[in-house]
Specification:
single chain; 216 residues; alpha/beta; Spore Coat Polysaccharide Biosynthesis Protein SpsA, Chain A; 7-stranded mixed β-sheet; 37% helix; globular
Length: 216
Amino acid sequence: MIPALIVPVLNGHNLLDEMLSSINYPIENVIVVDNGIKADWEYWNKNPYIENLFHLPMPSNMGVPVSWNLGIKALPFADYWLIVNNDIRFINNSLKEFDEQSNAKTLLLSNGSPRWCAFSIGSEIVESIGLFDEAIYPAYFEDTEYEWRCNQKGVLPLLSNIDIEHENSSTLKGGYEEKNSKTFPKNMMYLDNKKTNNDLTQGDWSLTIRKDNSWD
């Protein structure tokens, strides 16, 4: 059984429903971090493979790194966490393969496009590398930054052959392309500065960045 699945969602709750419906392997806890202020959303299918589903409606868009970290913090005793985009679908035995190949010591990337659309991260990886950098807001480069920190510390992500269907960039296509055109280069510059300074910390949430990069 997969101990925990974390999925943030901003828009495209219909795609979220499709992702949850594609689950065909037991998962103990699913956490939906709802950044789209959809307090009335309810998963209609009641997938029997999901033991517990927690819907966390946020009053504003928390962003990807904060959402990932929130899921990890909410379920601190999991050996590993499976983190996915809301617009992916599990196919064939992909979930079973994740469970078989994931453990406390691994960072395992899917064979989806991009690979970080679905990945598992072990508890010992988080203890060694830290959480995701919440100064990156609201999205893009959080995965690149984490992989860079891993590589700098000699921790190599495992590239799996686990196939995932992914409707790429569905959030942007839902009305956020213009906002992303402004925040994307800012997040890139932030990461470049970390690399220049060899800053291997997990970073800190910034009220200034949160406001300046707002997609609200």
